[in-house]
Design goal:
The protein has helices at residues 34-39, 43-47, 76-88, 128-142, 156-167, 268-278, 286-290, 321-326, 343-347, 356-391; strands at residues 13-15, 21-23, 61-68, 93-100, 114-118, 146-150, 171-178, 182-187, 192-197, 201-204, 220-222, 257-261, 281-284, 311-315, 332-337, 350-353. The protein is an alpha/beta fold. Strands 9-8-7-10-6-3-4-5-11 form a nine-stranded mixed beta sheet, with helices on both faces. It has a five-stranded parallel beta sheet with strand order 13-12-14-15-16. Strands 1-2 form a two-stranded antiparallel ribbon. The chain is globular, with a radius of gyration of 26 Å. It comes from Paraburkholderia sediminicola.
């Protein structure tokens, strides 16, 4: 019989400067215990330790970061751009975040000292001249030394180029290296660097900066109104709206919502029906493709497609390293798998321990019930309107 005592890995621990966990000896992880509070913090309370403010000095200059919000939040690229400005700001520099669209995130945690929100602008609305006028008005109000935008294809990159051209400002695009004195970009088909002094407008390439900051900003929300006359009212730009297409026709590399099937999915028609109901593009693991359940263009992974969806739901996929490589840039990953120790569970933001096929069937039933309830409600509203018309 083995009488060796094992150390409970859930006991209170501290984090060393190297990022290693060190269990606090003599302490027992008992909920509500005063001993726990006396001997150190648990992992959860450690994460709650407040980060220091980057600066409390009076601001003498401003760095302005502009970006579009997506459903109330900044994407990874925008957070990296904000972090870049915060990291190169000195003690007397204030970082101002200008958000086009509604923003419900924590601006302080992202490194911003001031937040200006323009909810009238949305990523789904094409108003480039109005956004340019708003950015120019904000620049006039705060006189920033430098302006930072993520260099993407969803509005920010275009806005940065438009502003640089309109203001005749110096600009650097696709910036992959930055500090307080210079920026660097790739040239000659990514075989050499070009370096220059920090320009007035910086368009940052993705993954150039780690968005995790060791400090926080002030996070002050500023009430600032943009009262410029809409360019759309002058007939310069007319927004024709967004054209809706079937998600199945969308290339996986461009899809924002993907449901993916693995070996655990046996009823392919039910899976495809769920994808249609959710309005999601369809992906698959290599095993499912090799079995002939899906065509090769649906394969996701190192030997297939690399995707960047906001939401990726994996049904019955164990998560081989090649598949995980294909979804590394997805924002939210949900895994449905019977094996709680499957590799994809470590990558997933949410793991549902259940049979993939049963979960798909349950979701289809729930969707059908919701459609029926909605149809019944609409019928009741229509009948009520008819009755009121008859009484009138």
């Amino acid at each position: 019989m083995n009488n060796l005592k094992r150390i409970d890995p859930r006991r209170p621990f501290t984090i060393t400067a190297e990022g290693l966990r060190r269990i606090t000896l003599g302490a027992t992880a008992v909920a509500g215990s005063t001993e726990l509070a006396a001997h150190g913090s648990t992992g959860s309370t450690h994460r709650e330790h407040a980060k220091p403010r980057r600066t409390t000095a009076a601001a003498q200059r401003v760095l302005l970061v502009a970006a579009h919000a997506d459903r109330g939040a900044l994407d990874d690229h925008a957070r990296q751009t904000l972090a870049a400005a915060a990291l190169i700001a000195d003690a007397t520099t204030e970082v101002v975040l200008l958000v086009f669209g509604e923003f419900s995130g924590d601006a302080a945690a992202l490194g911003a000292d001031k937040l200006i929100e323009l909810p009238m602008f949305d990523r789904r609305v094409f108003a480039p001249l109005d956004e340019l006028n708003a950015l120019a008005a904000c620049v006039a109000a705060y006189a920033p030394a430098h302006i930072f935008l993520p260099d993407n294809a969803t509005g920010d990159g275009d806005l940065g180029r438009r502003y640089a051209a309109a203001a005749n400002a110096s600009v650097a695009t696709h910036v992959i290296e930055i500090d307080a004195a210079h920026v660097a970009v790739y040239i000659q088909t990514n075989t050499a660097f070009a370096v220059r002094a920090l320009p007035e407008v910086v368009l940052l390439a993705p993954n150039a900066v780690d968005p995790k900051l060791p400090f926080v900003g002030a996070g002050e929300r500023v009430v600032w109104r943009f009262d410029g006359e809409p360019a759309s009212s002058k007939g310069v730009v007319r927004d024709l709206g967004i054209e809706e297409i079937d998600a199945a026709q969308l290339a996986l590399e461009e899809a924002d919502f993907i449901v993916s099937a693995g070996n655990g999915v046996s009823d392919v028609p039910a899976f495809e029906r769920l994808a249609t109901t959710l309005g999601a593009a369809i992906g698959a693991s290599r095993v499912a493709v090799d079995d002939g359940k899906f065509t090769r263009d649906k394969q996701i992974g190192a030997t297939g497609k690399t995707v960047e969806a906001s939401v990726y739901i994996a049904f019955g996929i164990s998560g081989a390293v090649q598949h995980l490589q294909g979804i590394k840039d997805c924002r939210h990953v949900i895994a449905v798998n019977l094996d709680a120790s499957a590799p994809i569970a470590k990558r997933a933001n949410l793991t549902v321990i259940a049979d993939a096929q049963e979960t798909i069937a349950a979701l289809n039933e729930a969707a059908a019930a919701a459609r029926t309830a909605r149809g019944t409600g609409a019928a009741l509203l229509n009948s009520t309107a008819v009755a009121e018309g008859a009484l009138a």
